[in-house]
DNA sequence: GCGTTTTCTGCAATCGATTGCAAAATTGAT
DNA sequence: ATCAATTTTGCAATCGATTGCAGAAAACGC
């Protein structure tokens, strides 16, 4: 049986026959402590399985060593998001933060009022905040950003926006996707997604730009306004196909939406990609495993998480970092 | 412009012209404080946007009001899991904990030694721990559970196991899945998954039991030992089909695996479900959107999260709760 | 108006660490 | 052996809250 575990630093000090100051310094490798006592105390600590109380430590040091990651469940999101895209980003964030010795406090918020972010920032529970997705909360984000520096947001950097947003260049992504279909000779290309959401709006703008660039007139009727996070892509596409049997391409705003569309096409007897080419967005983990595997626009979330965390730490150190939009890339598989 | 925000309770006390005790009590709705001063102080607090420092509060109260949710990345898991199943459970856990006023500390751990769990439990950062998946860490879990009560694990309740595991009845799930295929008249049914992992082993046992019950002899060669979390289902199934063209059903250990198998079948020109019926496991969010939509065994993760959290809170209160395995259910869609 | 209850408020200790400053112990020089 | 210089240790304040106990104020009875 190993020695009983010790509650706090004072207990350990008593056992070692020294003051708490000495123990604290020894454990912190302070040069004020002789090598002899340092090793003796370190040995005792290990022996008794002692660890500092992080809460007390952080209180004294005026920090928390924790970062809040917020998933706001606003207009666009259903009650229970489990969007694989968001979850993948979350995983990368967890890694990036852990690597830097920070804890990740996961918070899902249904924004009832416009104070949810303030509550979080002044509660003293975290040293910084990462918000995943702007949802319909841009105003709240802007207001808080004016007063609270260590805040970064995954999303689209809009004009006149006050908060630091990091994400991929959605306009470019939409353009890439559409240009790819155009390059395949497709001309009647539908857009599946709701442009009201900031990111999707930008992708739609890219879609329009690509069409214009190829001399194809965009038809408003080829827009399928799918709620983000909704699972209605299948039904929406099925009904749409009845009215527009002549389309030959679909630019989907997410891989999940693309999957729904593919199923609708498949059930309507339209081959993918022969009859209708479908391109997704995100390149989520399962995109390579659908039938057929999805051609899609990849957002490198490993890189995204790195950028988010890097910007956040700069901000925690006092520098107001600018927004970033990095380039997405086309991933060729079989659906287009 | 609103009044400048106040740093701490003492500042607010100064402004109100009372002691910190009074402010603290007023904010806590203590009956020791007169209605008059209580409302006056509450008003001041709102006006100045004051909030208690939670770290200090929790230190004083000897708690953290936070729960660690651990994703151990052991043998079976790739470096970056983003298994939709786990992520869905995580979402529900976040809701269940938030509802009870607790924070969720997300921790991904690659178990390098056998002390990772001890480090977490004695760091004082959390009031309890939920581990998602036993991975290859059963020994560590058992050892810690002997000493640290507020610990619950999502997973299979094995015999002789010391820790509290909560999950679905995997044996029953495997049986259900297999029985369904048998009911469809299928006889040459393959199992796609690695029985070495506890949960999968149980599902495989159920598979064998169902075969035996129907008088079908199980063939060891019909086992496709897919690493859990791996993305190799496609390749594995494709190669397997070459050697075993005669199968007419596949019981997959996860929906993700089922997707890979369906693609392999599709590319081999075998229709699903006509030629080969495929049944998945989990019923993850996208299972309804594959082509064809997956027939699968549903694990109700909302219920699972509720059970995990309920057990954890009982344990935090001092009661050693037993392991629980609740029933999974068959979800009929189109793949089998 | 005065003593007694009852109601309110404040002092000071506490949670478990860190750290500036002063005191003690050690070392070295003479 | 004595004293100065240096190294090592400890006292006590601090981070921002909560709370037992005692004292002040208010309410009450006579």
From TrEMBL, chains A, B:
Keyword Lyase included in the entry's annotation: no
CDD domains in alphabetical order: HTH_LacI
Molecular functions per Gene Ontology: DNA-binding transcription factor activity; transcription cis-regulatory region binding
InterPro entries in the cross-refs: HTH_LacI, LacI/GalR-like_sensor, Lambda_DNA-bd_dom_sf, Peripla_BP_I
Domain HTH lacI-type: 8-61
Alphabetized UniProt keyword annotations: DNA-binding, Transcription, Transcription regulation
A Pfam family the protein falls into: LacI
Protease is among the record's keywords: no
Designated name of the protein: LacI family transcriptional regulator
Species of origin: Glacieibacterium arshaanense
